[in-house]
């Protein structure tokens, strides 16, 4: 359930929704769960079409980058920052079809 809500809503909104459902969980835990699942996705074939977006770990203070396989609708990786250099390095290490 954490993975489904986290993937669809993100950290803070997922935390608020889980609290309303009676399940106390932090936004950091939701993001860790997503990152752990992204590491497991390495077993699959490389994605052909990826979506890349930046998002906030902490609003107006710290940002990250999420890379998603758009065909399988799976999180492929979460990068610690939102720099172009980090994404370019990730693309060099992880060739696409």
From TrEMBL:
InterPro entries: Transpos_ISL3 (IPR047951), Transposase_DDE (IPR002560)
Protein name: Transposase
Domain Transposase IS204/IS1001/IS1096/IS1165 DDE residue range list: 50-93
Entry superkingdom: Bacteria
Pfam families for this protein: DDE_Tnp_ISL3 (PF01610)
Organism: Rhizobium mongolense
Residue ranges of the TM segments: none
